Structure formats: C-alpha cells, structure tokens
Amino acid sequence: MENLTTGSNTCLVGLQWGDEGKGKIVDILTESFDVVVRYQGGSNAGHTVVINNEKFVLHLIPSGILRKNKWCVIGSGVALDPGQLLEEIGELRKKNIEVSGNLRISELAHLVFPYHKKFDELSESEKGDEKIGTTRRGIGPCYTDKMARNGIRVADLYHPDHFRQRLKKVVEEKNKILVRLYDAEALSWKDIYETYCEYAEQIRPFVCNTVVFMADAVKAKKKILFEGAQGSLLDVDFGTYPFITSSSVTAGGAAVGAGISPRQIHKVLGIMKSYTTRVGSGPFPSELNDALGEYLRKKGGEYGATTGRPRRCGWFDAVAVKHAIMVNGVDSAVLTKLDVLDEQRTIKICVGYTFGDKAYDLFPPDLAARSECQPIYKEVPGWLRDTSKMRDRNDIPSQAKNYIDTLEKILGIPVEMLSVGPDRGQVVNLV
Ligand code: GDP
Ligand code: IMO
Ligand code: MG
C-alpha cells in the first residue's frame, strides 16, 4: 500500500452521499498508519469492515480499531453519544477486539443527549413530506446546541456540580419547547444526570486532551489517517442543502475537527462508489427508480449500516463527484464496488444536467430547488465478467479498464485502487 500512503498524513473523504466504502478502505490503509482520527459526524455514520467473512460495523470508533497497535482518536468535532459508544465498545470486545488504551476521546467533543434525539425525531415529523430523512441519532440538534453555545462537552462530565447545574438549565429550557410547542412529554434532568454520570465513569479511561495527543503524534512523526464520515454531498456548506448532515464533512473539516494544523494534512484521498447511492431525502438526478435501481440495491447490499433503510441507487454522477473533488482538493481516488456492475451490458455516467432548456456541467449550488433536473449520460460498454476474484491489475477486463479510464479523464484525478468486494482482501492496486 506504499503508493497510497507514502510519507503523508492522509485525509480520506467520501465523494458522494455517504456509504462509499470508507470503512473498508480505512481498515486497509490503517496497516500503514499509526493514528486514525474521526473528526466529524457521530453515530449517524455506519462504516463496515469485513475480515474473513466476519462483519464489523463502526459508528463512532475509527475503523482503524480492528488493527493491533494503532491509536484511534475521536476528535473534538465529533458529536459523541456515550451510550452508543459504550455499546460499540462492548460489541467489539465480544469479538475479541481490543479497546483500551488504544482509544482516545477528546474532552472537547460535544455530547449527544436524549433531548437531541427527541428533537431530531420531532423536527422530522413536523416537516412531513419535506423531511430530511435523518438517522435520528440527534446529530443536527447536538450541533445546533454547539453553535448556539448551549452544548455540554465531555470535559463537563468530570465537574459534577457544574454539569448538574448546566444540564438542569438546558433540560428545563428544552422541556418548555417539548411541552409547549410539541405537546410532548417533559424529560427528567435527574434521570439524564444519573445516566450520564455513569457513562462518565465508564468512558473516563479514554478521555484525554486530544489536541496535545495529536500535537505529540505530529512531533513524533507518527502517520495520521483522518477518517471522514458521511459524504461530501452531505456537507453542511457544500452539500445539497438542506438535505445534508450538520457537520463539515470535507477535508477542511478534518483540521478543525481533529484539532490539528491544516498543514499536517498532506494528501486527500477520495472514496467513490462505481455507481451512486443516497439514504434519506434530497436531490439525486441520476437515481434509477426502476428494476435496475432495485437490482443495484440487491446486488450491492444497499441497506443502511446504521438504520437498515434501503438506499436509493443510480448511475455514477460525475458532475456531483467533480464538485466534491474541487471542494476537497482530492489528489486521487479509490473506486469501490466495481463488482456490483459486473452484469451490466451498458454502463451510464452522468456528465451533465439539463434544467429547463439549459444544460449544466457544473454542480448547481441550488440543486435542491431544481427537482426537475435531468441527467445527461455518456454510455460505455460493460464487461460482463466476475471481477470479485480479481487481485491483479493485469486481470482487469478491457471494458472495465475503459470505464475507469473514462472516469479518470472526466474527473481529472487518478484512481489508485479498486475495491471488488466487501472483504479486506478484495482490492486491486492500480499504481
Ligand atoms: P461507509 O459508510 O462509506 O464505510 O460504507 P458502508 O459500510 O455504509 O457501506 C458500504 C457497503 O458496501 C458495506 O456493506 C461494505 O461491506 C460493502 N462494500 C465495501 N466495498 C465493497 C466492494 O468493493 N464491493 C461490494 N460488493 N461491497 C463492498
Ligand atoms: P457514513 O459515514 C449515508 C444522511 C441521512 C440523511 C442526512 C442527515 O456511513 O457514510 P443526520 O442523521 O446526519 O442528521 O442525517 O444525512 N446520512 C448519511 N447517509 N451515510 C452516512 O454516513 C450518513 N450519515 C448521515 O440519511 O439523509
Ligand atoms: Mg455507511
């Protein structure tokens, strides 16, 4: 894996609407890194790693945890649900994965509380047909409180009087909205306080000043891998607003969310699926609402790793990915799930959109308002061969090679690696 990692701290980002296969690639790359950091998002993420048919789904813990002797850091930019975290730790330990001194949690990370999940649910119900289709993990409300300066952070847990006072005040305020606006039941701050005091003790061994930890890692020339969650088109600024998540998904967010200088990110690696998927609502010009869309869902196992929801499927959208490449400054890419297209006689790539009587080859910032946007396709022949057992670049069928070359030409970046199945070993190095 030297080619992908040489001498560089790398930021790995999803270039579509999430679920590009980031977890699998992080797990592979971790072999050549010392530290893996999650810098944004929370348990809305579901990153799958398959090792010899054993499946692991990570939500909050970096996917690097499955390798021995690696540091895994949950940075200050993550919305941390301690209950979910402890559950995840329990699951991993059951599978004999070590989670002890190798996990570090930022004391600056904002905590997700039950009222965040409640507000996520209520806000979605209120929106009716306009709902975002969130994962209901309380992510939006947690980040809202962070920015509104009503948040409570991990460090606050270790000052019980201060925590109690703050929590009481916040819950009392939330209850006014819950009861008066939503006609919902009030929450008990005392119950939440007791539960979170217990969580505090359980997560205490992992909590530290990750700013200092990361600075020391840089000083000691440790190799750092930044594990992006979600996808660039769900980014709060550059995604398909308002059908987005509430964090800075893109590479710029990695410096802030990990508490490290942007100069320490030497390379940006984009992960893109050979077709497109999206969970939840929002624009998706190349969506296939037909038997082929259903086929891709089945063949690709496109069901949410966090919520189990069926993912919407469609052709590769090069307009959207080009936009993601631009906002991230992507150096090179990994193309995943090539095997899912093995049985297609013809493969389409969306290279532009038409809206009214105009054609666009740039991603429109107001895509959500352009629901009638139609895709313009370029067609390439399929390879009609099983690629899942392919490990050598010389075995790539010529039509598959043509598909990859065409994408590289349109996108202007090289594809360094192909993924041809869920398992850790199912990859082909292209450089
Ligand atoms: P992430 O959120 O980006 O980590 O992606 P998810 O784990 O949510 O979704 C990717 C799904 O595709 C998981 O079920 C993976 O096991 C699976 N997967 C990853 N790479 C490949 C691949 O190359 N081929 C196939 N068939 N499945 C893959
Ligand atoms: P990974 O890291 C795919 C989507 C939700 C919804 C929108 C907002 O596994 O790629 P949120 O709960 O974040 O407020 O939901 O974002 N979403 C994801 N879609 N993969 C993810 O993560 C996602 N995390 C959030 O479906 O449309
Ligand atoms: Mg996922």
TrEMBL record:
Its cofactor is Mg(2+). Pfam families: Adenylsucc_synt. It is found in: Cytoplasm. Substrate binds at residues 305-311. Pathway: Purine metabolism; AMP biosynthesis via de novo pathway; AMP from IMP: step 1/2. Its EC number is 6.3.4.4. GO terms for molecular function: adenylosuccinate synthase activity; GTP binding; magnesium ion binding. One of its GO terms (biological process) is IMP metabolic process. This is Adenylosuccinate synthetase. The lineage of its organism: Bacteria, Pseudomonadati, Planctomycetota, Candidatus Brocadiia, Candidatus Brocadiales.
